[in-house]
UniProtKB/TrEMBL annotation:
Transmembrane segments: none annotated. One of its GO terms (molecular function) is acyltransferase activity. This is GNAT family N-acetyltransferase. It comes from Streptomyces lateritius. Residues 22-170 form the N-acetyltransferase domain. Keywords: Acyltransferase, Transferase. It comes from the Bacteria. The keyword Signal does not apply. The keyword Transferase applies. InterPro entries: Acyl_CoA_acyltransferase (IPR016181), GNAT_dom (IPR000182), N-acetyltransferase (IPR051531). Its EC number is 2.3.-.-. The lineage of its organism: Bacteria, Bacillati, Actinomycetota, Actinomycetes, Kitasatosporales.
Amino acid sequence: MAPSSAPEAGQRAVVTVITERLLLRPVRTGDVPAVTRLWTDPEVRLHLGGPVAEQVVRIRQRRIVGAPGVHAVVRASDGVLLGLVTVEAEAREGEAEVSYQFLPEHWGRGYAREAVAAAVDRALQSVPSVVAVTQEANVRSRRLLEALGMAHAESFVEFDAHQVLYRKRV
């Protein structure tokens, strides 16, 4: 099921970032089923604390549409939602933090790298640095962040798991 790239009734056509293959735009009501899969898929959530509890999913479903800093990553050619990229200003000790999750059927095609790079580059136009945190065990995510020129800044334990913080400065 591919969500339409056209805005739904009552919603503005806002595209935050355009890349070669992708649109990063606010989350729309029609995106909620795919976004819910991101929150509940065990493979997606392997390094994110596991699937989100049903009652939390229901709360998130009400808040995600149009949420500031949350970008639906949509393939420009057909409007399919691939994942989410979030940039939260002043999230971690005053620094902007980027986070992302993509549906497994879209892994390995460079979409996450393209979307996260665009989001980080956009953020660095207005902030001096952007950080990202991933579990030490999440080798794919670590490779992605390193490919974007983000440098390992520190390691620590959080949420009962070894974490790695990466940083990119202007």
